[in-house]
Specification:
Helix content: 25-40%
CATH topology of the largest domain: Thrombin, subunit H
Strand content: 25-35%
CATH architecture of the largest domain: Beta Barrel
Shape: elongated
Distance between the termini: 32 Å
Number of domains: 3
Radius of gyration: 26 Å
Number of helices: 12
Largest sheet: 7 strands, antiparallel
CATH class of the largest domain: Mainly Beta
Number of strands: 25
C-alpha cells in the first residue's frame, strides 16, 4: 500500500487546497467536504469492491454511505467511518481503475458515456447488428447498437426472457432499462436511451466473478457527455499526502531503538527501570519448549519472559521477521500444528494474541479472512488478512478453520483507535507472515514443525480454546 501511495503522489494534482490534518484523519467522515468528482471516485471504487450498486454520479446519499460503512467494517474498521477510512477507499479505487486503464469515455455514435478498460478492451464476436467488445481476462462483454424503438424493445424482451427470478426494469419516455440474471449465472444489463431521433442501446454481460466491475460499468452509464471518473485535486489528494508524510515520519529510525518495540504490532508501556517494557505474542511450536514470534518483538530486549517464565532467543531472521525462543518451563507443552497446505484466498482465519495487555488483559481472539496471498508491494513473505489486530498481537498465530497455523501476525490495523491512542496511521489491511515461511524458518533452525492432517472445520468457540492452549504473552524488558 505504501508503494501505491507514492505512485499516487506522482500523479495526483495536489494544489493549495484545504488538507486533512493528522488530527482530522481520525474524525468521522463527512462527504459534504468533498467535490462531486471526488465522490464519484469513491463510488466507483466501492462498486469495484462489490460494496456499491448504484449510480456513479457524485450524489452521496444513504446508499453510498452504507457502502462505505460496509467497506470499512470488511477491512477491520468500525461502524463509524473516519476520514482515514475514506482515504484508504480512495487508494483502493485508484488501484482498481489503474489496473486496466478504466476511464469513463464518451461514445459519440451512441451519444452516451460509460466506463471502459482502455488497456484491456478487445474486439468481440462479429455481428451485423451490434458492435461487440470484450475485456481481456474477464467475463465482461459490451454490445452496442443504434436502432428504432421496435428493435430496442426486442433487446429488452430478450434480456427479460432469459431471467430467472425478478427482473429489474425502468420504463420512461426516453429511457428503458432491463436488468436480469440468467440460469447460467450471468448478469445482463440492457439500457436504451433516445438520442438524436434513434434509440442507442448498450448491453453489458458479466459472470459473478466480475460483479464489482459490472456494477461500476452499469452505474457509470449516462446520456450524452458525462464528467470523467478518476483522481482529482481536493481533500482526498491532500489527505493522501498527509498519510504519506506520517508514514515517512513513522519510518524514521528511532534514536534509541532498544527502548521500544517497532511500530508493527508490538506495544510499549512506560516503566520505572532503565528500559521500557514491551509486549508481544508467541506460540508453542515444539514439545521441547520452543516458541515462535516476530523478530521485532524481541529486538533490543535486555531480558525476555513468556507468561512470566524466563525465555532466551535461539534464532532470529530479520528478513522473515521471525524469532525462535526457548522457554524451559514450557517443555512437554502441546505445540500448535501447522496446515499442510498454504492458506487459500478468501479462506476464514482466526487470530489469537495479547493486544494491549496492560489495558485489555487476557487472550484476545478475532476472525476474518485471507484477502490477498501477497504482502505489501507483492512480496511473497507476507499475506494480507482482514482479522483485526492491535499493538501486542505481533507474533501471534493465524489459524484456519481446522485450527491449524497458516500464518504469523506481523502488522496491526485499527485506524481510529491507533490514531487517537498512538498517533499512528496503519494500513487498511493486516499482514501475516505466510505459514510456509514460518515452517521453513523452523526447519532451518532445527525444529520440525508439527503438520496437521486434513480435518473438518471447528466451531469458533472450539478454535478459541485450541488457540489459547498454545498462545503465550511475551514481555520484553
Amino acid at each position: 500500500m505504501r508503494a501505491l501511495i507514492l505512485v499516487l503522489l506522482l500523479v495526483l494534482p495536489i494544489g493549495p487546497l484545504s488538507a486533512y490534518t493528522a488530527e482530522e484523519l481520525g474524525q468521522e467522515f463527512d462527504a459534504r467536504q468533498l467535490t462531486e468528482q471526488e465522490k464519484r471516485f469513491l463510488q466507483v471504487g466501492l462498486a469495484f469492491a462489490s460494496f456499491y450498486n448504484g449510480m456513479i454520479d457524485g450524489a452521496w446519499g444513504q446508499a453510498s454511505q452504507r457502502a462505505l460503512e460496509r467497506y470499512t467494517l470488511a477491512n477491520g474498521g468500525t461502524s463509524i467511518v473516519t476520514n482515514a477510512d475514506a482515504l484508504f477507499a480512495a487508494l483502493d479505487a485508484y488501484e482498481a481503475l489503474d489496473a486496466e486503464g478504466w476511464e469513463r469515455q464518451y461514445n459519440s455514435a451512441l451519444d452516451m458515456s460509460f466506463l471502459v478498460p482502455t488497456a484491456a478492451l478487445i474486439d468481440g464476436a462479429p455481428s451485423d447488428v451490434f458492435v461487440n467488445l470484450n475485456v481481456r481476462g474477464r467475463s465482461i462483454g459490451y454490445s452496442m447498437t443504434i436502432d428504432n424503438g421496435r428493435a430496442a424493445q426486442g433487446y429488452h424482451e430478450y434480456t427479460a426472457g432469459r431471467a430467472i427470478g425478478e427482473v429489474y426494469t425502468v420504463r420512461r419516455p426516453l429511457l428503458w432499462i432491463t436488468s436480469a440474471r440468467t440460469s447460467g449465472g450471468i448478469s445482463l444489463y440492457t439500457r436504451s436511451d433516445y438520442r438524436g431521433g434513434s434509440w442507442s442501446t448498450l448491453m453489458i454481460a458479466a459472470a459473478d466473478s466480475d460483479a464489482g466491475a459490472f456494477a461500476a460499468i452499469t452505474g457509470s452509464i449516462a446520456p450524452g457527455y458525462a464528467p470523467a471518473i478518476g483522481v482529482s485535486s481536493g481533500r482526498l489528494a491532500t489527505g493522501i499526502e498527509t498519510l504519506a508524510r506520517i508514514m515517512d515520519e513513522r519510518e524514521t529510525p528511532d534514536p534509541a531503538p532498544s527502548a521500544r518495540v517497532p511500530d508493527t504490532g508490538g506495544e510499549t508501556v512506560a516503566a520505572s527501570g532503565p528500559h521500557a517494557v514491551g509486549f508481544g505474542t508467541g506460540f508453542i511450536v515444539s514439545e521441547d519448549g520452543y516458541l515462535l514470534t516476530n523478530q521485532h518483538v524481541v529486538s533490543g530486549c535486555a531480558s525476555l519472559s513468556v507468561d512470566g517464565e524466563p525465555a532466551s532467543v535461539v534464532a532470529e531472521d530479520a528478513v522473515f521477521d521471525l524469532a525462535l525462543l526457548r522457554v524451559p518451563a514450557l517443555s512437554h507443552a502441546k505445540p500448535a500444528s501447522f496446515a499442510a497446505d498454504p492458506a487459500r484466498l478468501n479462506s476464514d482465519v482466526t487470530v489469537a494474541g495479547y493486544p494491549l495487555p496492560d489495558l485489555l488483559g487476557g487472550l484476545n481472539v478475532t476472525r476474518g479472512s485471507v484477502t490477498s496471498l501477497k504482502g505489501m508491494g507483492g512480496d511473497g513473505i507476507n499475506m494480507q488478512i482482514s482479522a483485526p489486530v492491535q499493538p501486542g498481537n505481533s507474533g501471534g498465530p493465524v489459524i484456519n478453520a481446522a485450527g491449524q497455523v497458516v500464518g504469523v501476525v506481523v502488522a496491526k490495523l485499527d485506524i481510529a483507535y491507533a490514531l487517537k491512542a498512538y498517533d499512528d496511521i496503519p494500513q487498511n489491511v493486516n499482514f501475516a507472515i505466510r505459514g510456509e515461511i514460518a515452517k521453513l524458518f523452523l526447519a532451518q533452525n532445527g525444529v520440525d514443525p508439527v503438520i496437521g492432517g486434513a480435518g473438518p472445520g471447528m466451531a469458533p468457540e472450539v478454535l478459541a480454546e485450541q488457540a489459547q492452549a498454545f498462545t503465550r504473552l511475551i514481555t520484553c524488558n
